[in-house]
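Example record

One chain of 370 residues, shown exactly as stored in the release files.
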Amino acid sequence: MKSQKHKLLKITKKCLITAFSAVNHRLFFLVFTLEIAQKRHTKLMRTPKTRIPTHAHRHTCAWLFSFLFLVNLLFIPLQTLQSAVAEKKVVKTVESINPALLYWKELLLLAQRNDDSTIGEARRYLMDEEISPEANLLLLNLDDIFENFSLIKRSKIECDWGDDFSQGPHLLLPHLSELRKFGFCLALKGKSDIQQGDGEAFVDDILTLFTMASHIKSSPILVNLFVGHAIDELAVNLLSEYLHRLNEKELKALQLGLVNLPREKTVADCLPTEKQFISGWFKEKVIQIKKENPENENEGLDEIRHLVFLLTEADTEDWQVILDDSNNAIDGIIALIEEAEKYYNEIAEWTQLKPQECLKKLLNFRDNLA
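Predicted structure tokens for this chain:
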């Protein structure tokens, strides 16, 4: 009888260990440790002629398993709470992702689904007074991408396009032209929504355009600002035409969205970048060429000529002007670059002036260059 009871206790103990380990690996480790301790304790309590555990040992095991069972009951609500928190984080995923990554993903999907000519038609459809059936078909095909672009507005992370400025003039920005083209699609959707009387969707389209423009202008590069302003213009043109159709609730939603647009860079923010990674990059290349050709000035000038032709639209006549102004010397070309760099600082000061005064300065600067 005692042997059967002992066997039953062993089976029950193994079942409990299996159950605990399935719920939580930490409990399994604890039980495994106690199992070793139990074997050592049993070995000490045995006599040479018996293998039956003592009453004290059985009492200790029962207490330990009761304790573990209670701990396990506490772990179950804790795991439920952790699962609830995880589900909540999934809902907020978009808010914690770099918007640039979201834009890239949608642009890849867009490239797989449409040929370039189809998206290009959006600009022409936008010129029509009424939305055509062909335009509606295009909008229907892009419906899910429109929704994903709209969700990007929820991101609270600063947009980082991952631009490697050390590449200088070789830095490629392929996303700018693609977002610019998709901007016409968003504007077309806004026009379609407001013509169908959906002012709420129209406001969302406008804010999506403005947000995308602000995200583009988050990088301190002048061309980003130009593209961002062009997309802003699409939204402004739509508002100027259809603002009067919005009710009070929609106007308040528009106002709130405009106040909360992402921070964007200004011309003043871009000038240091342009100076360091355009003229500064070119000057470093010229200095490097000079070091590599210490005793052969003509070979160094020939390398610089190839570099100038590669990066600019200069021709032979332009190169001759550079040679004349630099006295046919690499040091002279470096001096010309350093002289040009002074203009960056001067223009940066103009951007702090009132718009009309800044424009006057720029026009005078252009006329002097001519």
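Notes: Residues 22-34, 40-52 have pLDDT under 50 and may be disordered.
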